[in-house]
Amino acid sequence: MSFLRIQSLSKTFNRVVAVDRLDLDVREGEFFTLLGSSGCGKTTTLRLVGGLEKPDGGEIYLGDKCLVSERQKVFVKPEKRHMGMVFQSYALWPHMTVFENVAYPLKLRGIKGNEAEKKVAEVLGLVGLSGLQERPAPALSGGQQQRVALARALVFSPRVLLLDEPLSNLDAQLREEMRRELKALQQRLHITVLFVTHDQIEALSLSGRIAIMRAGQLEQVGTPEEVYFRPATPFVRDFLGKTFLLPGKIVQITEHGIRVEVQQVGAAPLALERTHLAFSANGLPAVGQAVMIAIRPEQVALSGKAPDREQNVMQAELQSVQFLGDRCEYTVTFGSETRVLVSPATQRLKAGEKVFLELKSEGISLWPREG
Fold it and tell me: What predicted TM-score, i.e. pTM, was given to this entire model?
């Protein structure tokens, strides 16, 4: 059931369309992420949901309550939406202590005294900051400031938590630690989270579902596995992770699958199950059709000797090797094509050697190609 519902939401800034008739449904208790590059409209969408911006059109509902409707002339103020928000900069007041920062939303709601002290103590314990109530905000580390901002957003028990790239200002190690803590906290509280990020690792590791945005619109909505392994559009395919792309031509279609010839390589045709086709209902593949063969680099096995099986195997030449600690990065060429692959560091190959690439059939997908 939809808990947070967005319908035909639009917002324009100086003739630049930031959000373009967006439709979105977020379930109760879900960790839902808006993912995209800078300028795609994800933060504007979050601010529209939180009431920090007014839309030009569309509606937003929380449960059965209408929060925003241009048509109905409804606009619920931010403090009345039962939503907590953590900003990218944390937005802590430097002249206040930890307690005063966290208690501020309670003060706005008329909650004071022992009740406020109890709620602040509970939420500080929840985020691992017990005993720091009297610490000045500027005296905190970056990770502690992030926790204070999170505590302030949670202290009044909001129905929805809005997070605008809250981990982007942390160093890599602390960001990884806070990522795990944030996921555990969300699951413990079972709170609905709308999370904005441009970081693919954050989106894939934290989310129940991800909406990938581009130019104010949704490209695809799905679980992390769905958007990564079954991208709906070329943009999603190329935006998430890395993609190993090869030009090809369909040479055979049977009841069980498809065989594709890799062009300008001379390898044996690749086998492909019918379920891995990125074609629309009106654009079914045909023999002789030009296609793009797509596979994630991690689904390509690299070896120095020929595998026992010949199916889906290509011979290549190893151009260079970069040691990255736990893995090695290999640049290989085959025909006129050059690609970069990653393999465990336990397998040490040398530049100049002939190598073999085995493409796992379950990871291959086909895409229409012009020409």
Answer: 0.88
